[in-house]
Amino acid sequence: MVDKPHLDEEALAELQDVMEDEFEVLIHTFINDSRDRIAGLRHAATNGDADAFAKMAHSFKGSSINIGAPHLGELCLVAEKAGKAQSLEDSESMLSNIEEEFRTVTDMLEGLMVR
What we know:
By secondary structure, the protein is mostly helical. Helix 2 (23-46) packs antiparallel against helix 3 (50-67) and helix 2 packs antiparallel against helix 5. The N and C termini lie far apart (33 Å). It is elongated, with a radius of gyration of 14 Å. 30% of the residues are buried. The protein is 79% helix and 0% strand.
């Protein structure tokens, strides 16, 4: 897997310019939606629902990349591919990696908002 940065500073700067006063709302929405997506991934993995796992990972990948979190997006891509391959044996490890990266990204994004 390519080692991508936690945050794409350029993408975030563009989002900040475009969103202006709504930037913080966007960040909070991403964080809250991501928590729901992680819960959805965990639920799908627990139930052995590879299709739902792939779809949730795909959705999470897109929102991560759009917000400027490329490494999180890459981890979601790995999960998406596993779901599409009907291979959830490593789902716990994938989820742990996604959750850890999400915590890192959340801390970094929250740090941007207190400036």
